[in-house]
Design goal:
Structural class: mainly alpha
Strand content: under 5%
Number of domains: 1
Helix content: over 70%
Number of helices: 5
Radius of gyration: 17 Å
Shape: elongated
């Protein structure tokens, strides 16, 4: 990947990381509003993988450790996506959007909307990091089509 491409990848992933943090904080506020508590291991996962790891990864993207930053970003956002998808849409608990505790319609809407937006941001971030890693390793989609021809 050339310098301009790497700069674009850094900017895009930094923006996605910042957006992820804002939406995660909004979703955390929705958790508090509805009284949806997490277990201690879940809390640890949220703080380490969902909040801290993407921040560290974005910081690394702007250093000579860009490869480590890309890998950490990919792993953290993929882990966040899997965690959120499982607990918000699969596992039956008060954290599941179909089994929320009593609360206002607006509070339920904020919880559900923030969970959905978070999942979309995490999916986009995971894909963005995977593409950036591919380009970093010289496996750009254009290269693949050129090899096939």
């Amino acid at each position: 990947m050339n310098n301009q491409g790497m700069t674009i990848a850094r900017v895009v992933l930094t923006a996605l990381g910042a957006l992820h943090l804002v939406i995660a904080m909004w979703h955390g506020a929705a958790h508090q509003e509805l009284g949806v508590a997490l277990s201690a291991p879940q809390d640890l996962f949220v703080y380490v993988v969902i909040v801290l790891a993407p921040l560290v990864a974005v910081g690394l993207l702007w250093t000579r450790y860009v490869r480590a930053g890309l890998w950490l970003f990919l792993i953290a956002l993929c882990g966040s996506l899997l965690f959120g998808t499982y607990f918000h849409y699969v596992f039956v608990s008060p954290d599941n959007i179909e089994h929320l505790p009593a609360g206002s319609v607006a509070a339920h809407a904020r919880f559900t909307l923030s969970a959905a937006i978070l999942a979309l941001i995490e999916l986009g971030s995971t894909l963005g990091a995977a593409f950036a890693l591919g380009w970093h390793y010289g496996i750009a989609p254009a290269d693949a089509s050129a090899r096939a021809a």
